[in-house]
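Entry 12.
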Amino acid sequence: MQIIETPRLTLRYITSLDAIALMPILGDEEVMQYSIIGVHSPNQIKQFIEQRLLSYLEYGFGLYAVVHKQSQQMIGYSGFFIQSIEQRREVEIGYRLAKKYWGQGLATEAGLAVIKYGRNRFNFQRYICLIETENQRSIRVATKLGMKLEKKIVYHGLDVAMYSLNCE
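Predicted 3D structure (tokens):
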């Protein structure tokens, strides 16, 4: 079921049928370089999908499959999820694309659409991104989304930069 449409992308719910499409994304060392979990095994991809389905049931939102309109292929995911940062509930924007689609502005396109959808559908007024300080690609996307560096924190034992966007 389609949730969001942009000029080049469609975002829809992730389903169990996406396991094969996620293998070259979540299984790619370079794509997963800055992931807390790292490269995913087939079993971890199955767990990733189950977590997305639970998020849709529990919150009504989550990370969504990013489908390239031209090829009709799933090329990654983007969306939001709840984080607890210093005893505060935050809405984090997530995005991850297959390496083949890097550098084309697609993560930014998906992220901007997700922010607009979150404001309109769920009335989210603030978003964050937690990014390892060496992850320049992700920092570039966050800044193109309008986010600013708020502070540096330790998250799951990693030094990360917390970027934020207030939409109020």
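Annotation: DSSP finds four helices and eight strands in the chain. The beta strands are 2-5, 9-13, 63-68, 73-85, 88-97, 126-132, 148-155, 158-166.
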